Amino acid sequence: MKDAELITRIKQGERDLLGILIERYYDQIFKFCYYKTGDEALAYDCAQDTFLRMIRYMDSYIEKDRFKPYLFQIASNACNDGLRKRDDCFIEDEAEAKEGLTAAFDKEDIGNQIAVADTVRTALNALPQMQRDVIILRFYSDLKINEIAKVTGVNIPTVKSRLRQGKNKLKKILEKEGLF
To answer: Which of 42, 58, 77, 114 has the highest CB neighbour number within 10 Å of its CB?
Structure first.
């Protein structure tokens, strides 16, 4: 069943179909939230908040075959809110957490994978927010250029420009780290 049909039926009172819609997009939304926040616990909270907001505003949503970008826009806002709240609270020491994680896995390969993932995450965080968001939406959330334009609220040439500039900056950063 397509999103449009699900949404129509949900609005007509078949609220049990919300589960299908959530299940369809949960993994993509969680991945997006994780790459945007860089924190697994915060990503879970932001993903949950995304779907709570989706449910809350479902009756006001007007279907135009744009549900996926609409949902990612909600997720982006939830992540921005979550990051603001996190910055206002106590943050656990990341170095200590990484040490514990690396010690728990006594395999060099896993340690290397964690190091590479941390390096990529750090490189992504070094990009301006507008370029970072476009790269995350394109490569980690697999959205098309026109969908990214809808999520970010800018036109398609701007998305393409931000994507190109972000990839170039990311490549330079990763080259310095010896990963590219």
So the answer is: 42
Q: If pLDDT is split at 50, 70 and 90, which confidence band does 168 have?
A: very high
pTM above 0.70, yes or no: no
Distance, CA of 167 to CA of 180 (rounded, Å):
12
Q: Looking at the domain 92-180, which fold is it?
A: Arc Repressor Mutant, subunit A (1.10.10)
Helix axes 145-152, 67-87, angle to 10 degrees: 50
E runs forming strands in the chain? none
Q: Examine the pLDDT at 22 and tell me if it is beyond 90.
A: yes
Q: Is the dihedral of CA 53, 48, 45, 113 positive or negative?
A: negative
pLDDT at 90 over 50: no
Fold of 1-89: Rna Polymerase Sigma Factor; Chain: A (1.10.1740)
